[in-house]
Amino acid sequence: MRFGKTLRAAVYPPWKGKYIDYTKLKTLLRENDVTRNGEDASDSDDDQWTEQDEEAFVQELLNVELDKVNSFQAETSQQLRERTTACEVKLRPLASTPEQETPPLNEQKKRAIASEVLQELDNITKEVSALEKYSRINFTGFLKAAKKHDRKRGARYRVKPLLQVRLSQLPFNSEDYSPLVHRLSVMYSFVRETLSHDIVQPRETEHGFGRETYSSYKFWVHSDNVLEVKTHILRRLPVLIYRPGTSKDLDTMTEDPTITSLYFDSPRFDLYNQKVARAPEAGSLRLRWTGSLKDKPAIQLEKKIVTDDDESRQVKVQLKDKHIKEFLDGEYRFDKKLHRMEDSNNGDSAAAEALKKDVDELQSFIKDNDLQPMLRANYTRTAFQIPGDDRIRISLDTNLALIREDALDSERPCRDPAEWHRTDLDDADMTYPFNAVRTGEITRFPHALLEIQLRGKAHNTEWVKDLMVSHLVKDAPRFSKFVHGVASLFEDYVNSFPFWLGELESDIRRDPETAFHEEQERLARRAEENIAVGSFMGDARSPSVHPLGSPYRYSSAGSPSVMRRSSAVTEPAARHPRPSVAEPQRRDTEPAPEPEEPEPPTRLESIFQSLGLSPQRWLGTESVSLPPGVRHPGVWIKDSGPVRVESKVYLANQRTFIKWLHISILLSSLSLGLYNAAGKHNQVAQALAVVYTFFAIFAAVWGWFIYEKRARLIRQRSGKDLDNMFGPIVVCIGLAVALVLNFVFKVRFPSRFVLTRPSR
């Protein structure tokens, strides 16, 4: 498939000059230079590919073209956000609230504003869709150009690793348009209701909205963090045993099952293209079984359709190994089973009709789309779930291998066209890492895959939120084994690639503290957007944002949909006339007990707290009120990784300790000199020398104490304050009092304060 033709067809006319210049790159690569013998002219003796040629191509690809595309995407994205904000400003006067001081607009003015904004929203929506396609087609163009270069010049030069590093640093291929689309959808609803009902009043969200929503969140897990993630989950959820009857004893418990999924697609990869483009009603088909085919496992044929509302519908039938080929050809239709179900008098007639309908739908889907086995995904799955409780289901897939299962190459097919699967793999009972599979037919995914499925109130589970925002995982929305396998193994057959391909070469491990701060910044941005949208909707309950000082505090939205974008929603939520920005306040039958307000501190306590002199702060026991049902975690996730603290932090703490030692030595010298010069009968001077000695000892002890405390806080990466005013205040006040007393005694008792001279 020629990508140049695909690129020309995908160009958005207003942005014609902003796309990757694929023709120029091919010209610099001298793709069309051939000799009379059909050989590459650039590799001939007369015209060698030089260092200058390589530099010119790399400069054009990585600097000129990549910077051009990235700059245009960033500028256009910012302009779209600004235009969206301008629409919000225009709509605010239409949302009349009781607190509004300005007089309300008449209905004709409201309609005029709403019509104007609606037209602008249509333009913004159109450009958002075009920008997403712009990013995707250019991303594919860069990968195609790099692959063409490495295929032609790979003997001496390789540019794809450099390109992947640059792509991982630029945002154009990883931009998330979901927040912008969400803002547009809310404004669309508001404008349409204004035009249809004239007067728009704020409405309460229906009770229980979103509680039964079933959401899926996908993540990558580095191999170094797999065990830590498992142990974190095991503290809350048990490992799900697929076949508990096969394991009576703990010593004989089976290992994690190996799952094989066989994905179908047409020779034109229509299902893949629909899935990458997120086309409406995008479907997929797969055969799935657990363990080895030699053990005669139950094989499920599954069809999944994703609707416009990101809701999914599945159709399943269970087949035996010997009937799969006949079923795919449309010859096997469960006739015997249907006859038995129809002849029985136990009410199976409805089930028979349902089974017949599913069979017809599956076989029609296979025939209409010319589907055949294309890709095999083999992986080991560890599932976590409380038996009988499906509110939280977590699966961790490791040892993922994606293998070609096609018969596209008639001369050298990977699969026998007469078979429905690769017999060379299943008959030999090959297992990971499948070393016998030929190069180019297999790709091994470098990370583990974590999928968290939440239902209803499980969205508010605190430990799940902590795991989702921790440094142990990397967000991978809309990741698909099928899409990744096709993009990696069939890159010559497709002209569209998923964005996550550019991130595989980068290290997904993150510092815990850095990950924590990035998540806090993201939550702050999301809260600002929610407030901006909710302001013109007339919602008095604008989302409140907790301080950003703790990783266990989130926005009032409360659900992971605010923290993470849902990759798949399998159950529809309740319909509501107006989308809500923030999660509504829940009106339960029994009001929740209000937390007791702490007693206000006294004036003296307030003064001491302002100076940092509260006893709780000295002892490190400053209490924080936790919500009901929440217990102190003990160890934060951000503290579980390796400690990485710059050396200058420890050196600064040491310098502070040395300063305290200087103060102690100075006071010791002063007290010693005063005591030696006082004589036997000067009791006042002797007493002051003792006082100075006490403060010298206190300064040394305090310096050592605060040094050890700060070193411990630094090692623990604690969020507590490192400053402490107690020691400096004690030394300053004590010295001031001693000097005042010294002056008073000198003035009132001059005879008693005369220093005796030593006799000669």
What is the CATH architecture annotation of the largest domain?
A: Alpha-Beta Barrel
**Helicity level, as a percent range?**
40-55%
State the CATH superfamily name of the largest domain.
Answer: VTC, catalytic tunnel domain
CATH class of the largest domain: Alpha Beta
Structure commentary:
The N and C termini lie far apart (112 Å). The chain has three domains: 3-197; 214-246 and 254-506, VTC, catalytic tunnel domain (mRNA Triphosphatase Cet1, Chain A); 645-753, no CATH class. The chain has 760 residues and is α+β, with helices and mostly antiparallel strands. It is built from 21 helices and eleven strands. Mean pLDDT is 75; it is low at 34-46, 198-212, 244-253, 538-598, 606-613 and 755-760. The relative contact order is 0.09. α6 (178-197) packs parallel to α15, α10 runs antiparallel to α11 (349-369) and α19 (647-678) packs antiparallel against α20.
List its salient traits.
3 domains; alpha+beta; mRNA Triphosphatase Cet1, Chain A; 11 strands; disordered C terminus
Topology:
Layout: H1 3-10, H2 22-28, H3 51-91, H4 107-153, H5 160-169, H6 178-197, E1 214-221, H7 226-234, E2 258-265, H8 270-276, E3 282-290, E4 299-306, E5 312-319, H9 324-328, H10 335-343, H11 349-369, E6 372-386, E7 389-404, H12 423-426, E8 442-444, E9 448-455, H13 462-468, E10 474-475, H14 481-489, H15 512-536, H16 560-563, E11 568-571, H17 603-610, H18 615-619, H19 647-678, H20 683-716, H21 726-748
Antiparallel strand pairs: 1-9, 1-10, 1-11, 2-3, 2-6, 3-4, 4-5, 6-7, 7-8, 7-9
Helix pairs in contact: 3-4, 3-6, 4-6, 6-15, 10-11, 19-20, 20-21
